[in-house]
Amino acid sequence: MIIDFHTHAFPQRIAEKAIRNLAHVAGGARPNHDGTAEDLLRAVRAGGADRAVVLNIATNEKQQRNVNDFAIETNSAFGGALTAFGSVYPQSETALEELDRLKAAGIRGIKLHPDYQHFFVDDERFYPLYRRIGELGFVTVFHAGIDIGYPEPVHCTPQMLARILPQFGGAPVVAAHMGGWMMWKDVQEYLCGQDLYLDTAFSAGRMPPDYAREIIRRHGADRVLLGSDMPWGNTGNEIAFVRSLDLPDAQTAAILGENAQRLLQQ
Fold first, then answer.
1. The pTM is what?
2. How many CB atoms neighbour CB 192 within 10 A?
């Protein structure tokens, strides 16, 4: 089974507007699906994957509950083909309460995007949030490194991530974009060998393959996940990128789906 662990979709009523606005901020990026969960699943399967994880982001406090309602609805609508993660706005006074609601609803993970959510990931004010996420056993996915729409300041560098990992108490953490987009030397220095996962999102045609091979060699293929960043990446292209690295068959199979299956079943 092949699982795309890093995708995005939006409620149908706002999908067109969300895609249009995000594409504009990203310099005219061309999306690979129309923004809805239905079309995401079509595109993921057309690219060669069987399942996908949908990463939602609460970009302000008022949006938090609606974003998570969409995640809960998505999980019940596609027969397990889409696994939607929730999100909390870290500055929200109800963030901890919302985590409890998500746990009760069966949500498996949390997505945090420090650039969109306007916080530095190693700000100690958010350590209680991280500890609660860990206590509840969520998988936490961080956008890591530069964001193409918000390049400076970088709110989640590999060094910052390494600093906060102990706060999660061993609960799974995923650093997207191979640990930090456009900061792969720092990934090698600060994250390789640490207790976290990396995903391949937005790597195909953008990340030097030798960097990917070296990170995988140092970190271990058992802690790397296939991701596309759909609709901004393409599932088929990311699968081809992983296969182009000419890793041993067992490592390729682990990255393309086995690691994700294990992580989602924890």
1. 0.97
2. 18
